[in-house]
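Hey, I was hoping to borrow your eyes for a little while. No rush at all, and the record is pasted right below.
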Amino acid sequence: MRNGSKRLQSSFELLVTLAFGLAILLPLVIIAFIQLASTNTNLSAIQSQQAASKLASTATLIGSQGPPAKQLVQIQVPPNVRFIYVGNVNNTIGHEVIFVITSPSGLSYITAYTPVNVSGSLGGITSTGTYLVNVTSVASCPSNNAVPCVYLTPKV
């Protein structure tokens, strides 16, 4: 009987040691996953800012040249992009390119300003990937014929 109780004691001590190890390791794993999610959101925000700035600077350049100037721009859309607005959040004539991304705290709006009037429809671009965008200077915007603008559309 004495030999069996020593094996039981050894097994119990090993079980207690493993339990303490898991109790210490589990919070560290949870903290690591939280940090990883935060890093992915920050990376999406940075990549969205780069894409929005690229579109806005190209729109400024094309707008300064006037009609019929046009250029094809390649942008990288990161994960978590929910919508892309051109002009303003109503997709009418404005001065911004806006990427809406999903973050753990809700929706984040990443904007880039351009001094020229911009309009367009990039709402169909929401999945991760590389896209070509037509940036065209027009004498009259399709959404308002009285105003010249730079029109942005995805290349099909």
Notes: The chain has a mean pLDDT of 87. Residues 33-154 form one domain. The radius of gyration is 27 Å.
